[in-house]
Amino acid sequence: MPLADRKIVDSLVDWPDTAPDPAGATTTSATQSDGLPIYVDFANSVIDIDDLKGADAGQIERRHYSGLIGRLKRLVSPIKESTLENTQAFMRALKATNPEPVVLVIGGGTVGQGMDALYEDPAIKLVALDIYPSPEIHFVADAHNIPIQNGAFDGVVVQAVLEHVLRPEVVVAEIWRVLKPGGLVYAETPFMQQVHEGPYDFTRFTESGHRYLFRQFDRVTSGSSGGPGTQMIWSIDYLFRGLFRSRKVGSIAKLAFFWLRYLDHLIPEEYAVDGASGVFFLGKKAAHTITAKDIIAQYRGAQ
Question: What does pTM read for this prediction?
Fold first, then answer.
């Protein structure tokens, strides 16, 4: 996996020597026991310094499935074709301007679904952050305040992250800041999905709302990421888990209706975006901003 060399990452970091902690004291950028840097202003973050201590550090439970359970999981939630296609488009566009691009992955504690090609390409150097320690990242950080100097990256990936931040517009502004002029962003964000990751789930976006969130970027492509069939599987899961007060029953019901996702292939994109499970955006850093009136003309649905 071509994670960037630590020296490269250190040369990009821009973080004050001290930062306030919740008690009002002053602390240096903390370091985990394994030497993983932590760049967080704890006074202004949902991240708690106590949750980053010890062998089980991390606030959010990450489930890993293998064997039969893993195969069933992939049956219900396979890699989206749109993600595979968009990842390839992102990589091609990156290399068109820099044969050895440096890319920031926000929420890189685990390799994102459909992102294997990005991680396996030896020409692409990845810098990864998340809010919990992981062997897959270079440092712990809050994306509202990315500890990187301006214009450092050729590209940024933010997959299934923006629903988990309090102020998505601030995170996107940070993405714009750390990108080089003309740099690329690829984002996937839920639209019609139920709450996941409990108290760390805050918001959703329509395709138009997602486009306006990235209003300082020129659109390369955007659309649905999992259509109404996929969305219906989510709803069935949560309907049954609510009726029976059981996540296991919800999972069984979801498995019984896995075939609904195939209906997505029958739904035209303009109808899919109005009832999608999630949306995506691939864009290029721009020097201008689309206006509130402009966004009305950007609507891509069937209504």
Answer: 0.92
